[in-house]
Write a structure and sequence with these properties.
CATH architecture: Sandwich
Order of helices and strands: EEEEEEEEEEE
CATH class: Mainly Beta
CATH superfamily: Jelly Rolls
Distance between the termini: 35 Å
Shape: globular
Radius of gyration: 13 Å
Strand order of the largest sheet: 1-2-3-10-5-8
Number of domains: 1
Oligomer: single chain
Strand content: over 45%
Largest sheet: 6 strands, antiparallel
Number of helices: 0
Low-confidence stretches: none
Amino acid sequence: MITKSNEGEVLDFDWGRIEWLVSGAQQNSDTMTFGRVTIKAGSANPRHRHPNCDEILHLLTGHIEHSLGDERFAMNAGDTISVPTGVLHNARSIGEEDAVMLICFSSPDRQTQGE
């Protein structure tokens, strides 16, 4: 099944945007969620956890500092991080350009809990 660029679910936030392209809610996967996230330069998404799935995040453009539990990692375009189920994390765009990432979850109904 193909999702065209204008067919995803778009969520805008003060820190950036999430575009959901594949998920159970979109009825195009029974096993995964996939999307694209943009974090505005100098902004961060809130720390959160996913109690029902792992997450893989791949940075396409920009530079971020990604917190994972009690650790922090500097990431550049081309870097990938794996976030285990239930671990608190977030990303901060630390460059002068927006950070754009692909995100994938091991569940069609990704759940999120704030810190």
